[in-house]
Amino acid sequence: MSAAPAFVAVDWGTSAFRLWLMSADGAVIAERRSNEGLAAASAAGFASVLESHLAPLPGSDGLPVVICGMAGSRQGWIEAGYVEVPAELTSIASGGVRVPGTERNVTILPGMCVKSAREPDVMRGEETQLLGAMLESSGAERFCMPGTHSKWVQMRDGKVTGFQTYMTGELFSVICSASILKHSIPDGGSVDANEPEFLTGVRDGWLTPARFTHELFSIRAGQLLHDRLPTDNRARLSGLLVGVEFAGAGVGDDESVALVASGRMEQLYHAALVACGARVQTIDADTAVQRGLRQAWRILATETGGRLSA
């Protein structure tokens, strides 16, 4: 007998929408994905987009929905605000905001923030992924969550004590498309985690981050003077950026890091961390966000005295 649907989990990002119909024990019964991120949903209507994905799913009628990500941003469906750190990670569930005027119970989870005047920081969506990762991290205290804006999170005893964001992925895109290096780097393509130029770039960026802007120009000079291949240049640029991120995050030799990532991003960061001497525990990013949304649903159900309802 298949598991009965209990709730709907949604990760609503800037450019993507992911929905899972889930059982009480966390089994994924059905899944929907689209490119209806923040901008598309704002134009079409968040409620309309959500219901269009739920309509084809048997058993979804009346089920509660728990959402993380950019749907809770200031430009989203309804602003869910931020939980200030240090804070218990489970507090994101208690801080969830109920969307008014919907036929079913729709709750959007808040993000987390560092309100330091000198180094303010925010995350939205990653905190829910982190909640799921915590459940299988064997007491890890350092989490790396790579992406367009990579997050490094410090935790202790279930509490987020701090985090930092690095614009690694976005800088890679900007440098490739809008700097002098666009003439030295091929359009498209991907970087292999085992490419020597990538791993050398990682260690150079990690060990000597103060030379970063010089190393960038050396990519251009190397092509002009030594005919270095565009694919090698791309790999080196990627490695340098990741290495500088590691330097900023204070990655140390023999440090234990929980890496929350999937696919190519997991391969690149795993290889890069190992190249810097770190001990890596990998946690699948998709599984982590599903588990985080389930944990939030369970907390919300407990706080409301039972199963959430419409």
Automatic annotation (TrEMBL):
GO terms for molecular function: 2-dehydro-3-deoxygalactonokinase activity. One of its GO terms (biological process) is D-galactonate catabolic process. Pfam families: DGOK. The keyword Nucleus does not apply. Keywords: Kinase, Transferase. InterPro entries: DGOK, DGOK_C, DGOK_N. This is 2-keto-3-deoxygalactonate kinase. The lineage of its organism: Bacteria, Pseudomonadati, Pseudomonadota, Alphaproteobacteria, Hyphomicrobiales.
